[in-house]
Amino acid sequence: MPYKLGPRRKIDFKLQGSRLITNISNNGSKYSDPKFTIYVENPSTFIDVSRKKEEEIQHFRMGYPVSVEERTVEKEQLVMHDEMKTMVGWTQNGPNTDEGENTGTLKSDGERFVIDNFGAGSKWHGGVARKSLKEPLQDFTVEAIVECWNQNSAKSMGRVEIYLLDVNSDVIGKMVMAEVHVNVASNYGEIRAGKVNEGHHIISTTGDSPWTWNDFTGRLRITRVGNFWAADIARILEKGGYDSESYREYFDVDERYSKNQLAQIMVHIGGWKEAPNLNASINDLKVWKYNKTTTLEAPYIVRKGDVVEIDTADASIKINGKDAIYTKDLFGDFINIEKGTNQIEIFPSDIGQVEVAYRERYL
Which CATH class is domain 76-290? Predict the structure, then answer.
């Protein structure tokens, strides 16, 4: 049966004693599908959302609480976060980039890494900068926030790349956003396990259309745990959040690309021959280490600074814009706001700031 939607309403949860709770009066004709947004201030192994209306109780859970025998551990441990405000700690040399020459230099403008001098070359050419991790990592996630502005001219070409290097500076993976097309603006994203001409392309696309990632500001992310690889490219919206996402997984069954440990990160901005150069930058770089857990250890599913979105309308869970449906308890329900007065409570109560947005429905 068709229905009309009322205006979007947003309510912030408030601490009432030791309870993080709110009461919502739904004056519509039927239930509403809410979206909960949680700005995490304290790490937690779980998040519960509970709704009570008279004697009816509905419960949602992601993760699970810790028992008295268990101890909490940080499964994903942030081991490097560089805001790219300075070149201190970076070395402007490294192995040659894929099909390129390191003839230029990079610099920080105080907010991000940008090109200082492209140099010159008969193919790809530009600057690189390399930084070592405190320890080599077997299981990891690397995430970079980059920009690649390609629509000033259809003739402009260029690339911004993140290389994953082992202790011998051999390439074990790469992430890139680039304009490689002649006479047309069409940014291309690539995330690869292994070396050029030998590796496996987990993502290699312009997105859903040839123009999806034009004038790109967004994230490039690669994960390796055991022989499992995951790749993610997504645009960052001006008001926050992500869209135009491409996510792919890959199992390196023969372990061709999963043995060498990650020891260094190398970043690169380059141009093509004498083609007009585009504007590109590396704005932020993070590396996480994956810690192995035992049966008596409960991993944190969220950390301080994370943003969790639980959307009943499309039955989705996202953490920092990335799909996290795997954290949902199988026996829990996505919360509805029923007609009438609903009491909704969040656990743990010190998780952080929580808001719920919804629209009433009218027949």
Answer: mainly beta
